[in-house]
Each structure stands twice: as structure tokens, then as C-alpha cells.
Amino acid sequence: MTRDLTAQNPITERGRMAPKEYDAILLASFGGPEGQDDVIPFLRNVTRGRGIPDERLEEVSHHYRAFGGISPINEQNRALKAALEAELAARGIELPVLWGNRNWDPYIPQVLQDAYDAGHRRILTVTTSAYSCYSSCRQYREDLGMALVESGLDGKLEVDKIRQYFDHPGFVEPFIEGTAAGLAKVRAAVGEAGKVHILFATHSIPTRDADAAGASVDEPREFDEGSAYVAQHLAAAAAVVERVDPAADWSLVYQSRSGAPHVPWLEPDISDAMEELAENGVRGVVVVPLGFVSDHMEVVWDLDTEAKETAERLELAFDRVPTPGTHQKFVAGLVDLVCERTVANNIADRPAMTGLGPWYDVCRPGCCANFRGEKPTIAGADTRVGSVAAASA
User: Where is the signal peptide (predicted)?
Assistant: First the structure.
């Protein structure tokens, strides 16, 4: 069953949707294993459709195995859910918070079915991903769209999504606090004469996906390095540096690359960047995990373990800045983003700390394309799934 999104949900300037009366919030995240027996089934979920044998998955499971097979992401999402519930209650906003994952229990399809069975008909989704690219935005929209279609809930359950929040103050300001503290710590460690560099780290993605991020067939925009994903990170990093120390040296680096070696991904890798910095006389680095909402596996392994070991080998002073996690400003910011979309407690002003935002409520046609083939998606101007709840709620 399909519905015409634009006819039922008028979009105002810059992709803004009219406020609605939602009856629940869905916190949607990646998911992660919670024991050694979960690791391979979880990795099968993540790589489904790519034909990767279990033997290869076992080779790449070592970072989960090192932590007892437990990813910290699920517990962090439980904490974030509780923090959101507390912030909503403090404001007198009566919206239950549901939680669903793309790759592990609780799975999004079952959460949506349970929500419908409980009487919910209009849900606003908050994802734990702030930027624009296929894996950070469109894949969530696809998973939600596929869940509605495969469960028969399309046309019965309406599911929308808040805008990408890479430059919302609630996301950026915790990084400003952490970067200021980290920079002071590393500068004290290397002394007045020591050169310090800030490394803003994010997940690398294939360059093809990066080029497609933010691309639109109806509203072409030019981005730094030709990619909304890259441009959003650069703009957010610049906003942090401007508030902390405009004279500080900084750069954007990438981590957590996977996939076939012959496929080009965004570079430089953080460890390679540290090698070059050390050769050029830098004595300390402040690592800001700008691409991440919480301290999940890509942070505690790729940064706190591998990048830190590289720094130690190069004799670089090292400090890793906290992610927003359950920082009060971040939690309040997410609730503000919800209130941008609601009739009750509406927040009409939409703050953005960069010139790229505020980002769209509804993704533009063709944005962050899936090169493996089109799927039903929600919250897109070129999609017709999940946009209208049935009249007989």
C-alpha cells in the first residue's frame, strides 16, 4: 500500500514539515551483541546480503571478543532512553519512548508491531546518527519502510523522523566542552613549546556513498569536497574550534574502514594521520569522536584501543574527548528536535551552528542513494511509505 507523501504532509521551506500530533517516540539505533554467542549472529545481520562466510566474520570479530562479546551500545541506548523519558517528564510532555535496533534485539519490525498493537498510530523517530549518508540516514529510513511493508502496517502506522542534527547545539556543545578540556590536558602534558593537533574522527565510508550523500535531483547543492557527509563534519568541527580556540590546528580523519581493499573509502585513516603529524613535530593529539553519539565499539576499540596504541608508539600525548552520550545538553537537544515536529510544546525556532543547517525534515529525492537497489523508505520526498496513518486508527 502506498500514499502520496507530499499531498498529505505539506513541506514548507527547506524541507520543513508541518507539526503533527505524535503519540510515541522511537529511539532507533544500530544494535550490538550482548554476549560471545551473539557476535557471529549479529555480524551476519550487519553483513546480510553480501555473501560473507562465518570464517571471515570470525576474523573481524576480535574487537567484540575482547570485550566479552558485548558491545556497549545497547546499554548506552537504555541509558539514553531513560534520560529522554526523564527530560520529557520534566517538561510535562506525555510521549512514551520506544527503542528499536536495526541489527539486534529489540528489532525495529517487532517494536513497530508492538507499538501498533498497543494503540500507537503516529510515531516520530530519533536515530542515534547525526549525519547524512546512506548508512547514517537512508538505511534507517529503509529499515523502517521495509518493516512497515513486510508487517502490513503501511497505511496503518505513520512513522516520521527528526532531521539530521549534526549542527544542532545539543549535539555540538558537549563536544565543545570536551574539546576545551582535552586541549588543556594535552597542552599541559607537552608543555608550552609542544605542538598539539586536534583530530576530529568519524566513521569512514565508501567514496561512492560519500559522493551520494546530500545529492538531490530536485535541489542541487554544492558541498565541501562534493559530499554532505564530509561537509557536515567539517562544518561541525569548525564550529567546535571556533568556540574553543580559533588558532588551534585541526583536521578531519577517518576510522573503522571495512570492506574490500580495492574499494576506495574516505581518508586519511586516523593512525596514518598521527604518523604524519609526529613526523612534522606534533607532540600531542586531542581526538574528538565527532561522528559518534555514544562510546560504542568504534569508539572504545578503534579510538581508545588502536588509536591510543598508535599514539603511545609515536610518543604522542593523547586524550579522547567524550561523546555526547547522556549529556544533559544532548538529551535536552533531542527533546527540542522532537518538539520542532509536534503540535503541543512546539518549538518553531530551529537552531543550527553551521551554515549548512537546519537540515531537512524530509530527505530530498535521490539523497544518499542505495546503489544495491531501491527499497521502501520513510521520511523522504521521493518515498510513499509510512506517511499516512489509516483513518480508522
Answer: none
